[in-house]
Amino acid sequence: MRLTRWTCPRFNLRQPYFQGFKGFKTLLTTFVLICVFFITITPSALANLDDDHFDGNIFALYGGNGSLVPPRVTLAESRRQGRPALLVFFLDDSKDCKKFTTTVSELQRFYGRAADFIPVNVDTLLPDTSYSAEEPGYYYKGYVPQTVLINQAGKVVLDQNGQIAFETVDDVFRQVFDLLPRSESVELRRRSFNEFNTELVETQR
Fold first, then answer.
1. How confident is the model at residue 201 (pLDDT cuts 50, 70, 90)?
2. Half-sphere exposure of 115 toward its Cβ, with a 13 Å CA cutoff?
3. Mean pLDDT calculated for residue range 21-50
4. What residues form DSSP beta bridges with 161?
5. Which of 5, 10, 149, 156 has the fewest CB atoms within 10 Å around its CB?
6. Alpha carbon of 30 to those of 16, 23, 25, 33: distances in Å?
7. Residue 107 near residue 59, CB atoms below 8 Å
């Protein structure tokens, strides 16, 4: 057996001291690693669709589309360009808003090139403030989610609260762009492809 300072008799009196220090050091290291783990853990691992807790960017986590926030254009810019705009008023800590993100993402997939999608976090709206018709706050009624579709002429053609169906907004978009009604074109059905997201697929009539 190799003689080390830990097995040598002359060091035996000091051994308990070093063992205690070593144990404390190990415990401290473990504590630090646990803290680092909880600080750096990804939000998606803790995300929950069915509660009103803040998880992060709900459009990225639940809608699979982080590009929606922040919006690429303002409502004023959209109005100047004569493009339709879809305002979606939301809160990141609302379960209803979390569930509605998939609908917004699918709408953008079909109409995002022809219309401007402008999600608005209502926490950014100032209370007791007078807004103009070119500002999102002008259309907010105090509920989330709230969906407002403004056509090319600046007229509100849809204004509804809650989790409205894709088909409801799609029908209005079809009118805005003078497209065939649903009864005369391809029908879209929802298909779930993971825990949070769904996609729309064509079905034969």
1. very low
2. 28
3. 65
4. 146
5. 10
6. 21, 11, 9, 5
7. no
